[in-house]
Amino acid sequence: MTIVSHKHEFIFLKSRKTAGTSVEGWLIPQLGQMDFVATSRQNWGANLPVLGTPHATTRFPILERPAKKLLRFFRPVLRLGEHASALDVRRHVGERVWKQYFKFSIERQPWDRLISLWSWRQHRLGREISFDQFLDKLENGEDDPLVEFWSNLPIYADAGGAVVADQVLDYGRLKSELGEVAQFLGLPISVDDLPRHKTGHRTASDTVTGLSKAQIQRVSRLCRAEIKLFGWDEPKSQQ
């Protein structure tokens, strides 16, 4: 969960490695002062709503943080984090808001998304492992920060895997579909102004075309639920 906008009646459910931080930066200037946003440090700045964010994303920390410690008891939405699950968001905002507001998220075909996650986690944690070792950890269910919260399903689906967001945008068509969302919500913003955050950490060789047939099939098994939901075709190996 990243944004609950009472001003525009939408909820943006932030998935991982789908340009979510960039979309946040694009949406934040449209928010009202009582809207809620939990975002990455790339978006900390003057456009954040006062008292509408959790502790980490704060405009005036000396004044805001003590107040938020009290507000968290009376305003449950402030307990939500940057990537809270759809079920947590629903519980904290309540049924009326959940049903009334337009809820959207983003998903990316899994072969490319897991390469991006693998590359980003190595950069963020200062560790280096091969993509096969990364897949080993996923398959073995290891308790390792490199692979924690690797699936986006809980962000936009319920415990049974059914999508509960009103729309899950396709990362491959992100700009065109974001433009449609902005028009639907009546937001006066252009996708041409979409910022680019958390980019530049992948090497030129870290692409889907560089995956072996065995790696492609391993990802397919790990992400069979998402593949079935969105009808993605398994890519062809170039090796």
Any overview of this molecule?
- This protein is α/β, with parallel strands linked by helices and 239 residues long.
- It folds into 2 domains: 3-108 and 152-200; 109-151 and 207-239, no CATH class.
- The chain has helices at residues 20-27, 61-74, 86-93, 95-100, 110-125, 131-140, 153-156, 174-185, 213-222, 224-230; strands spanning 3-5, 10-12, 36-37, 102-107, 167-170.
- The protein has a 5-stranded mixed β-sheet.
- α6 runs parallel beside α9.
- It is globular and about 55 Å long.
- The model has no long low-confidence stretch (mean pLDDT 88).
Mean pLDDT: 88
Point out poorly predicted stretches. none
Number of domains: 2
Helix content: 25-40%
The tally of beta strands, per DSSP, is 5
In what range is the share of β-strand residues? Answer: 5-15%
Strand count, sense and barrel status of the largest sheet are: 5 strands, mixed
Rg, alpha carbons: 18 Å
Can you count the helices? 10
How are the strands ordered across the major sheet? 3-1-2-4-5
Q: Order of SSEs, N→C?
A: EEHEHHHEHHHEHHH
What is this entry, summarized?
The chain is an alpha/beta fold and 239 residues long. 40% of the residues lie in helices and 8% in strands. A hairpin with a 4-residue loop joins strand 1 (3-5) and strand 2 (10-12).
